[in-house]
Amino acid sequence: MPFDAADESPTPDRHAMSAEISRDVDAELARMTPVERAAFVLRHQEGRSIEEICAVLSLNVSSAKHAIFRAVRKLRAALEAPGEPA
Q1: What is the pLDDT of residues 19-67, one digit of tens each?
Q2: What pTM did the predictor assign?
Q3: CA angle 70-15-4, nearest 5°?
């Protein structure tokens, strides 16, 4: 008997949760500084290298890495479920 894989289609609950997370991410991105937002998007949504981010944003390596770190820290804090440790 062949193995029957479970249906991996997202459930309505999963779609709703994804939409909520997407709204939360967008809201937090809007609250970031322009440099943090741009650095985050370039790195984590576009997959750009640190060197590319430095060139696009006219930053040194340390500043680019720090902007990405701050953005990720803010996003994690905003998305953290209440009662969970940081």
Answers
A1: 888 888 899 999 999 999 999 999 999 999 999 999 999 999 999 999 9
A2: 0.73
A3: 115
Rounded distance, CA 40 to CA 68, Å? 5
Written as six digits, the tokens of 27 are 């809201």
Phi-psi region of 58 (alpha: psi -120 to 50; beta: other; left: phi over 0): left
For 11-80, give the DSSP string. PHHHHHHHHHHHHHHHHHHHHS-HHHHHHHIIIIIS---HHHHHHHHT--HHHHHHHHHHHHHHHHHHHS
The conformation of residue 81, written as its DSSP 8-state character, comes to P
Closest CA to 77 of 16, 32, 45: 32
Domains of the chain from N-terminus onward: 28-79 (1.10.10.10)
Read off the amino acid at residue 42: L
